[in-house]
Amino acid sequence: MAAVKTALVIGGGIAGPVTALALRAAGIEATVYEAYAITADGVGGQLTIAPNGLAALGIVGADEVVRAIGLPMVRTIMTDGSGKRMGEFPGLAGLPPSRALWRADLYRALHDHALAQGVWTEYGKRLVGVEESPTGITARFADGTTATGDVLVGADGIRSTVRDLIDPAAPGPDHVPLLNFGAVADVTVPARRAATYFSFGKKAFLGYWSQPDGTTAWFGNVPHKEPMSIAQARQTPAAEWLKRLREIFADDVPGRELLQRTSVDQLVVLGSLEIMPKVPHWYRDRMVLVGDSVHAPSSSSGQGASLAMESAIQLARCLRDLPDVASAFAAYEGLRRERVEKVAWRASKTNNSKALGPVAIAMMGLMMPLAMKTFLNPEKTLGAEQRYRIDWQAPVTASLSRPAGSRG
């Protein structure tokens, strides 16, 4: 019988409510503690939930609420800055399409679903320290209150406090030399239905897709060597950023039109893309990490949120089935580390392609038809990621604390 009956989940973003739902499904009472005093409605840019993420959400009954708010994407089409098609990647056979959506919509859907299932979130609870005993762990919050449970799960993002408590020498996030922006343009540009477009422009990268209301959602990655936090980026007025972006995409199709038809109030300024390097210690004593706090691949992976959902499920399985906290945490890391690090490695290669010059982009266009039949074949590049499924009913044993394969 599992030794864990209660859990404190630190962080009320995307990973937090999914982790609490999974723990409750495993028979563990879980409460979410969020540092901010209010919800994160309206915060964040666009993201994708891949088929493996939808499968993980299905285990906690949240897949349908995400399908309802996300747009299905059945193909990815790559173009150069002139709008010329370089290649097309279809979705993988037999899998449901990925869903493109706004982070704010995903946040609200997951929180509403978790609340409906009895998961409670306490706001204004900024973690400042912990006290551990042989039988439990107590979280201390900045407001002077405390909470005690059998384990504490850090789902508190890329600047995790829990990660620092586990290992004060743990690495922080690395920046990718690309600035990230997103918006909705009040225009319909030529685009196939249910397709994500990746446009390698003359000076920057642009992704976009058509929305049912006739608008076009887009995100842009602009080369920028020095790191820039969200706070730093937002010190520059949005109107100034929009002016710069219009200049950067002025010679690109459809970048020019999308930027011209984007209003200042629609522009989301997100600063530098960030990734987590390898984290040496995923857990210590009664504390453990999930999601971006321990594995945050670049958004170029299209897998960040999906991997967080998988990890939440696998952690719950391990705590459900193994007799003590130490063996459960070890099995969890064994099931997850190799998989998430492979995805991060692939995403780093994608990041490099977003800063190519005109000559390299032209060469990429010439090579793309052959590449898609060989080393860029969608099944070879994405099959292991998107076909991954967790068998919730299968018991976890200590022997499973090995690198994950195609099934958990």
Automatic annotation (TrEMBL):
Superkingdom per UniProt: Bacteria
Keyword annotations: Monooxygenase, Oxidoreductase
Keyword Oxidoreductase appears in the UniProt entry: yes
InterPro entries: FAD-bd, FAD-dep_Monooxygenase_BioMet, FAD/NAD-bd_sf
Molecular function in Gene Ontology: FAD binding; monooxygenase activity
Upper classification of the organism: Bacteria, Bacillati, Actinomycetota, Actinomycetes, Streptosporangiales
Keyword match Protease: no
Organism expressing this protein natively: Streptosporangium roseum (strain ATCC 12428 / DSM 43021 / JCM 3005 / KCTC 9067 / NCIMB 10171 / NRRL 2505 / NI 9100)
Protein name: Monooxygenase, FAD-binding protein
Every FAD-binding domain range: 7-343
One Pfam family linked to the record: FAD_binding_3
